[in-house]
Amino acid sequence: MSFQLATKIALFCGLFLIFNKIPALNEKPGIYVNTPKIQDQESLKESINRGEIVYNDFCIQCHLPNGKGVQGVFPPLANSDWLIKKRTESIHSVKFGLQGEITVNGIKYNNLMPPMGLLDLEIADVMNYIMNSWGNTQDKIVTVEEVKAIEN
Q1: Which residues are 108's β-sheet partners?
Q2: Which of 17, 74, 100, 137 is close enough to 69 for a disulfide, judged by CB 3.0 to 4.6 Å?
Q3: How far apart (Å, rounded) are the C-alpha atoms in residues 101 and 13?
Q4: Which residues of 5-19 are buried (b: 16+ CB within 10 A; e: fewer)?
Q5: How confident is the model at residue 81 (pLDDT cuts 50, 70, 90)?
Q6: How far apart are CA 53 and CA 74, in angstroms?
Q7: Higher pLDDT residue, 105 or 18?
Q8: Residue 42: predicted pLDDT
Q9: CA 40 – CA 58 distance, rounded (Å)
Q10: What is the DSSP string of the chain?
């Protein structure tokens, strides 16, 4: 192989890697391509928009349009300490339902929340919606992979 050809191939490969943002070798496969990062505000915004639709179809009847729920019966999602402090439990409750006593913002609730039969993507989206609405904020986007990892 000639020196000029080898140089052209090396230049092409280098440009390919730079422009296609190939992940570093020490990154886990799939994470770079499939998981939106919180910095990717467009992905979060799209997830929130889809999550609002899911919320309006499945959650609004109990937790109400303002996310405040019904005191003593259906816990609030608005400014909810349980939602933020118990992220895994929150996702689990949307995925598998919830039974038993919980305390939200200092008030005890002991009602049944049945499983809604949502897909993992729908759960991630509705969690992103409620965790970014009514005074709630999150540092980390809920991903489909995170939802899949939660088992009953």
Answers
A1: 103
A2: 74
A3: 59
A4: eeeeeeeeeeeeeee
A5: very high
A6: 20
A7: 105
A8: 76
A9: 27
A10: --HHHHHHHHHHHHHHHHHHTPPPTTSPTTHHHHS--TT-HHHHHHHHHHHHHHHHHHTHHHH-TTS--BTTTB---TT-HHHHHTHHHHHHHHHH-B-S-EEETTEEE---B------HHHHHHHHHHHTTSTT---SS---HHHHHH---
In DSSP terms, 70 is beta-bridged to 74
Q: How far apart are CA 29 and CA 103, in angstroms?
A: 39
Please compute, for residue 44, the number of CA atoms within 13 A of its CA located in the half-sphere on the CB side.
16
**Amino acid in position 82:** W
Q: Say how many C-beta atoms besides its own lie within 10 A of residue 3's C-beta.
A: 7
Chain centre to alpha carbon of residue 46 = 11
